[in-house]
């Protein structure tokens, strides 16, 4: 039995660590020209903790559920707006993109390459086959820059599956997703 699942390592020290939340916060500021309020800030801090205990890189079904834990906690703390805020940061479980959706994606456009490279030491599966750590980081960032020109209609994980693993994502991206308004205030 594996002691540490891919997602647990990722939350502790990899691409879903608190540094990711910090970069999302900076992305939020850049996109919305304001800081999140207190409850939104807490939600940004916990939005990806549901990767804990999941082999999220190898099993798409596990990745697809990663927002549920954070959303449930936010629901307990802040009600529906908290739940929607986190569940809508990706479009597996919800058709509705929350305000967190875009900063979460844009964070990869602004993420420092050195940090993305450092993540590959904890999560070697983030290294693109036949590529260096540096090239893998640069290529993922480039893909997210391209994605940004298309309203971030592609999940980062789908880019990973397609480009790193040659897989067709199982869950169609919901490109017609609408912005959820419940969590704005
Ligand atoms: Fe996430």
Structure notes:
- By secondary structure, this protein is mainly α.
- It has one domain (6-165).
- Helices cover 56% and strands 0% of the residues.
- The chain contains ten helices and no strands.
- It has helices at 6-13, 18-32, 38-46, 60-64, 67-78, 80-87, 101-110, 113-122, 133-148, 156-165.
- Helix 2 (18-32) packs across helix 7 and helix 8 packs across helix 9 (133-148).
- The chain is globular and about 45 Å long.
- The termini are far apart.
- The mean pLDDT is 92.
- The structure holds fe (ii) ion.
- The site of fe (ii) ion (FE2) has 6 residues, from loops.
What's this, in brief?
56% of the residues lie in helices and 0% in strands. By secondary structure, the chain is mainly alpha-helical.
**Overall outline:** globular
**What oligomeric state do these chains adopt?**
single chain
Which sheet architecture does the biggest sheet show?
none
Overall average residue pLDDT: 92
Number of helices: 10
In helices, the fraction of residues equals 55-70%
The low-confidence parts are none
Alpha-carbon Rg, integer? 15 Å
SSE order? HHHHHHHHHH
Percentage of residues in DSSP E strands: under 5%
Given helix and strand content, the structural type is mainly alpha
The number of domains is 1
End-to-end distance: 44 Å
**Molecules bound to protein:** fe (ii) ion
The total beta strand count reads 0
